[in-house]
Amino acid sequence: MTANFGYGQLSPYDTTDDLSRMVFIIRQIIARMETTKLVQVKAVHGGGAAPAGTVDVIPLVNMLDGNGNSFKHGTVFGLPWSRVQGGQNAIICDPQVNDIGYVVAADRDISNVKSTLARANPGSLRRFDIADGIYAGSCLSVAPNQYLIFTSTGVRLVDLNGNSITMSTSGISWTDVSGNQMITGPGFVNFVTGALQINGVPVTVP
Asked: Which DSSP letter does residue 115 get?
Protein backbone atom coordinates (compact mmCIF):
# COMPACT_ATOMS: atom_id res chain seq x y z
CA MET A 1 0.00 0.00 0.00
CA THR A 2 1.37 3.38 -0.98
CA ALA A 3 1.34 6.39 1.29
CA ASN A 4 0.31 8.58 -1.66
CA PHE A 5 -3.40 7.88 -1.25
CA GLY A 6 -6.14 10.46 -1.68
CA TYR A 7 -6.95 12.99 1.03
CA GLY A 8 -10.25 14.80 1.38
CA GLN A 9 -10.55 18.52 0.81
CA LEU A 10 -11.87 19.24 4.31
CA SER A 11 -9.46 21.18 6.53
CA PRO A 12 -9.73 21.83 10.30
CA TYR A 13 -10.71 25.41 9.53
CA ASP A 14 -13.80 24.22 7.62
CA THR A 15 -15.36 22.78 10.79
CA THR A 16 -14.94 25.69 13.18
CA ASP A 17 -18.50 27.02 12.81
CA ASP A 18 -21.71 26.64 10.81
CA LEU A 19 -20.72 29.27 8.24
CA SER A 20 -17.38 27.58 7.54
CA ARG A 21 -19.10 24.22 7.10
CA MET A 22 -21.64 25.73 4.70
CA VAL A 23 -18.90 27.49 2.71
CA PHE A 24 -17.05 24.19 2.41
CA ILE A 25 -20.15 22.43 1.06
CA ILE A 26 -20.76 25.22 -1.47
CA ARG A 27 -17.11 25.17 -2.52
CA GLN A 28 -17.27 21.42 -3.15
CA ILE A 29 -20.43 21.76 -5.24
CA ILE A 30 -18.86 24.52 -7.34
CA ALA A 31 -15.73 22.40 -7.81
CA ARG A 32 -17.81 19.75 -9.58
CA MET A 33 -18.79 22.21 -12.33
CA GLU A 34 -16.80 21.92 -15.55
CA THR A 35 -16.61 25.26 -17.33
CA THR A 36 -13.57 25.70 -19.59
CA LYS A 37 -10.64 23.27 -19.64
CA LEU A 38 -7.27 23.35 -21.37
CA VAL A 39 -6.86 20.08 -23.27
CA GLN A 40 -4.61 18.26 -25.75
CA VAL A 41 -6.04 16.49 -28.78
CA LYS A 42 -5.21 12.76 -28.83
CA ALA A 43 -7.33 11.64 -31.81
CA VAL A 44 -9.32 13.30 -34.60
CA HIS A 45 -12.35 11.67 -36.21
CA GLY A 46 -13.84 12.98 -39.46
CA GLY A 47 -13.46 16.47 -40.85
CA GLY A 48 -12.30 17.74 -44.22
CA ALA A 49 -14.92 18.77 -46.79
CA ALA A 50 -17.62 17.15 -44.64
CA PRO A 51 -19.44 18.08 -41.44
CA ALA A 52 -17.08 18.93 -38.59
CA GLY A 53 -16.01 15.78 -36.74
CA THR A 54 -15.05 14.93 -33.18
CA VAL A 55 -11.89 14.80 -31.10
CA ASP A 56 -10.68 12.73 -28.16
CA VAL A 57 -8.86 14.91 -25.64
CA ILE A 58 -7.11 14.80 -22.28
CA PRO A 59 -7.40 17.71 -19.82
CA LEU A 60 -3.92 19.10 -19.14
CA VAL A 61 -4.37 20.53 -15.63
CA ASN A 62 -4.13 17.72 -13.10
CA MET A 63 -6.51 17.29 -10.18
CA LEU A 64 -5.28 17.71 -6.60
CA ASP A 65 -6.52 16.14 -3.40
CA GLY A 66 -6.57 17.86 -0.04
CA ASN A 67 -2.93 16.98 0.65
CA GLY A 68 -1.62 18.23 -2.69
CA ASN A 69 -1.30 14.81 -4.37
CA SER A 70 -1.93 15.08 -8.12
CA PHE A 71 -4.12 12.85 -10.26
CA LYS A 72 -4.27 12.84 -14.06
CA HIS A 73 -7.53 13.07 -15.96
CA GLY A 74 -8.53 10.27 -18.29
CA THR A 75 -9.35 10.68 -21.98
CA VAL A 76 -12.63 12.35 -22.90
CA PHE A 77 -14.00 10.85 -26.11
CA GLY A 78 -16.10 12.18 -28.97
CA LEU A 79 -16.25 15.93 -28.37
CA PRO A 80 -17.44 17.86 -31.44
CA TRP A 81 -15.25 20.74 -32.55
CA SER A 82 -16.48 24.16 -33.62
CA ARG A 83 -15.94 25.49 -37.15
CA VAL A 84 -16.43 28.91 -38.72
CA GLN A 85 -19.48 28.14 -40.85
CA GLY A 86 -22.69 29.73 -42.06
CA GLY A 87 -25.10 27.50 -43.98
CA GLN A 88 -23.00 25.53 -46.48
CA ASN A 89 -20.15 28.07 -46.40
CA ALA A 90 -17.20 27.21 -44.19
CA ILE A 91 -13.55 27.86 -43.42
CA ILE A 92 -12.07 24.38 -42.94
CA CYS A 93 -9.13 24.10 -40.56
CA ASP A 94 -9.55 20.86 -38.67
CA PRO A 95 -7.79 20.05 -35.37
CA GLN A 96 -4.71 17.84 -35.45
CA VAL A 97 -3.30 15.36 -32.95
CA ASN A 98 -1.25 17.06 -30.19
CA ASP A 99 -2.97 20.43 -30.68
CA ILE A 100 -3.51 22.25 -27.40
CA GLY A 101 -6.85 23.99 -27.17
CA TYR A 102 -9.79 24.48 -24.87
CA VAL A 103 -13.13 22.80 -24.29
CA VAL A 104 -16.26 24.67 -23.22
CA ALA A 105 -18.71 22.52 -21.25
CA ALA A 106 -22.45 22.94 -21.80
CA ASP A 107 -24.68 23.51 -18.79
CA ARG A 108 -26.79 20.42 -19.61
CA ASP A 109 -26.50 17.06 -21.38
CA ILE A 110 -26.36 17.76 -25.15
CA SER A 111 -26.13 14.14 -26.34
CA ASN A 112 -29.66 14.03 -27.80
CA VAL A 113 -29.13 17.25 -29.76
CA LYS A 114 -25.81 15.90 -31.07
CA SER A 115 -27.50 12.76 -32.37
CA THR A 116 -30.64 14.40 -33.84
CA LEU A 117 -29.34 17.88 -34.80
CA ALA A 118 -32.67 19.22 -33.56
CA ARG A 119 -34.33 20.48 -30.37
CA ALA A 120 -34.45 17.72 -27.77
CA ASN A 121 -34.64 17.03 -24.05
CA PRO A 122 -31.35 16.60 -22.20
CA GLY A 123 -30.09 13.02 -22.34
CA SER A 124 -29.59 12.90 -18.57
CA LEU A 125 -29.61 15.12 -15.49
CA ARG A 126 -25.86 15.82 -15.57
CA ARG A 127 -24.84 19.48 -15.49
CA PHE A 128 -21.64 21.32 -16.49
CA ASP A 129 -19.85 18.10 -17.48
CA ILE A 130 -16.90 17.93 -19.87
CA ALA A 131 -18.67 15.00 -21.57
CA ASP A 132 -21.00 17.70 -22.96
CA GLY A 133 -18.09 19.86 -24.06
CA ILE A 134 -17.28 21.49 -27.40
CA TYR A 135 -13.67 21.74 -28.55
CA ALA A 136 -13.70 25.45 -29.26
CA GLY A 137 -10.29 25.98 -30.82
CA SER A 138 -6.54 25.96 -30.57
CA CYS A 139 -4.37 28.00 -28.23
CA LEU A 140 -0.76 27.76 -27.00
CA SER A 141 -0.04 26.54 -30.52
CA VAL A 142 3.13 26.29 -32.61
CA ALA A 143 4.05 28.74 -35.39
CA PRO A 144 2.05 27.90 -38.55
CA ASN A 145 3.67 27.04 -41.88
CA GLN A 146 0.57 27.85 -43.93
CA TYR A 147 -1.88 30.57 -43.09
CA LEU A 148 -4.23 33.36 -44.09
CA ILE A 149 -3.26 36.63 -42.40
CA PHE A 150 -5.09 39.96 -42.34
CA THR A 151 -2.78 42.96 -41.91
CA SER A 152 -3.08 46.74 -41.97
CA THR A 153 -1.98 46.73 -45.64
CA GLY A 154 -4.06 43.84 -46.97
CA VAL A 155 -4.39 40.07 -46.99
CA ARG A 156 -1.74 37.40 -47.50
CA LEU A 157 -2.26 33.70 -48.15
CA VAL A 158 0.71 31.34 -47.75
CA ASP A 159 0.74 27.55 -48.19
CA LEU A 160 3.19 25.06 -46.68
CA ASN A 161 5.11 24.82 -49.98
CA GLY A 162 6.08 28.49 -49.93
CA ASN A 163 3.59 29.71 -52.54
CA SER A 164 1.88 32.96 -51.60
CA ILE A 165 -0.75 35.44 -52.72
CA THR A 166 -0.50 38.99 -51.39
CA MET A 167 -3.23 41.61 -51.80
CA SER A 168 -2.42 45.27 -51.20
CA THR A 169 -3.30 48.75 -52.45
CA SER A 170 -0.99 48.26 -55.46
CA GLY A 171 -2.71 45.07 -56.64
CA ILE A 172 -2.34 41.33 -56.23
CA SER A 173 0.98 39.50 -56.26
CA TRP A 174 1.35 35.74 -56.85
CA THR A 175 4.70 34.25 -55.89
CA ASP A 176 5.49 30.54 -56.20
CA VAL A 177 8.03 28.46 -54.31
CA SER A 178 10.64 29.03 -57.06
CA GLY A 179 10.37 32.80 -56.79
CA ASN A 180 8.39 33.26 -60.01
CA GLN A 181 6.11 36.23 -59.56
CA MET A 182 3.15 37.86 -61.28
CA ILE A 183 1.74 41.20 -60.19
CA THR A 184 -1.66 42.42 -61.35
CA GLY A 185 -3.15 45.87 -61.20
CA PRO A 186 -6.76 46.88 -61.85
CA GLY A 187 -7.79 44.32 -64.48
CA PHE A 188 -4.46 43.63 -66.23
CA VAL A 189 -1.03 42.11 -65.70
CA ASN A 190 1.62 44.72 -64.86
CA PHE A 191 4.75 42.63 -64.43
CA VAL A 192 5.87 39.02 -64.73
CA THR A 193 9.17 37.50 -63.64
CA GLY A 194 10.47 33.98 -64.23
CA ALA A 195 9.65 31.58 -67.06
CA LEU A 196 6.13 32.12 -68.40
CA GLN A 197 4.46 29.22 -70.21
CA ILE A 198 1.03 28.77 -71.80
CA ASN A 199 -0.01 25.14 -72.25
CA GLY A 200 3.62 24.12 -71.75
CA VAL A 201 4.91 26.49 -74.47
CA PRO A 202 7.44 29.14 -73.32
CA VAL A 203 6.25 32.71 -73.91
CA THR A 204 8.60 35.66 -74.19
CA VAL A 205 7.61 38.58 -72.03
CA PRO A 206 8.60 41.94 -73.57
From this structure: H
